[in-house]
Structures are given as structure tokens and as C-alpha cells.
Amino acid sequence: MFSRLAEEKKTGELLPLPASFYREVEETIKKHDKTGTPAEQQNKQTILNLLKAKRTQKILIYIAYGKQIPVQLPSEEEALYYQILKILNKEANIPRTTKIKILINIPEIITTQGNKIGPYQEGEVIQMEDSGDAEFIINNKIGEIIS
Fold first, then answer.
1. Where are the beta strands (DSSP E) in 1-147?
2. Which of 56, 107, 116, 132 has the most other CB atoms within 10 Å of its CB?
3. Neighbour tally for 132: CB within 10 Å
4. What distance in Å separates the CA atoms of residue 103 and residue 128, rounded to the nearest whole number?
């Protein structure tokens, strides 16, 4: 297990491990619990936790950069990978709204992205989901963001 941790620390890549790796290691630790000293048990558990932390960090990096994970991963890590992707995809689908206070009267206009906006009256507060339209309004001093 120590050699696996050393290998993981040497490379930025997520090294392949068998699907049952963590189960087997935890079973081995439990078997040796009866024969080893408490310090040895603590060392083994610390090494396992360091290995899990390092690999979790690498999984997050793979997700951040859109890299494909290795084919052979422990089932716990594969589940973690897909749970994180599911959460990120769910958040990506949530429309973001921007609250804008209109500074001048404007008729209906077409933005540079081809969207129709308006008419708006001075002092009117609107919410926009399209960040491009919100930028258009702010950059052209038609409105300002409010919180």
C-alpha cells in the first residue's frame, strides 16, 4: 500500500487500480488488526487515507480539465466521479439571473446576439437570464446591476 501511495505521488496521472482495491485493503487491515500493534494499525489507516485523498484530488483535477478517467478504477472512486459530474451538470442547467435597474427609457431593441429586449422605462428593475443580454445593457449604459 505504501508503494501505491509513492507511485501516486510521483505522477499527476490517476493510476489504474482494481475495482475491489479498497475493499481488499480494508479487509487486509482488519485481519492484521489482531496481530499488529496499535501504532502499526494507525500507520496503515493513515497511509490508506493519504492514498484516498491523493486520488480524490486527482479525480477532481480530471473533472476540472475534462479528462477521461482511466478504465480501471476502484468502484468507490468511479461512483465518486459520476456523483460529482452529476452535481456539476445539474448546477450547469440552473439558469442564472441578473437583476438590473434600467437607467434610461428605451424602446424595444435588438442586441448584438439578435435577441429582442425592451421596451423599458427609467427606474424599472428587470431580471435577465441571458448573461449576454445583461452585458449588452450594462456595457451600453442602459442599466446597472443591483443585488
1. 98-102, 109-110, 116-117, 125-128, 143-145
2. 56
3. 12
4. 15
Residue 30's pLDDT is 83
Q: Which residue has the cell 449588452?
A: 136
C-alpha cell at 80: 465518486
- The Cα-based distances of 122 to 119, 129, 136 in angstroms read 10, 20, 17
Q: How many CB atoms lie within 10 A of CB 36?
A: 14
Chain centroid to CA 93: 14
| Residue 51: Cβ-neighbour burial (10 angstroms; 0-12, 13-18, 19+) | buried
Whole-structure pTM value: 0.59
Phi, psi for 76 (deg, rounded to 5): -65, -40
Confidence of residue 144 (pLDDT cuts 50, 70, 90): very high
Angle at 146 between CA 133 and CA 118, to 5 degrees: 35
What is the distance between the alpha carbons of residues 100 and 87, in angstroms, rounded to a whole number? 29
For position 92, what pLDDT does the model report? 64
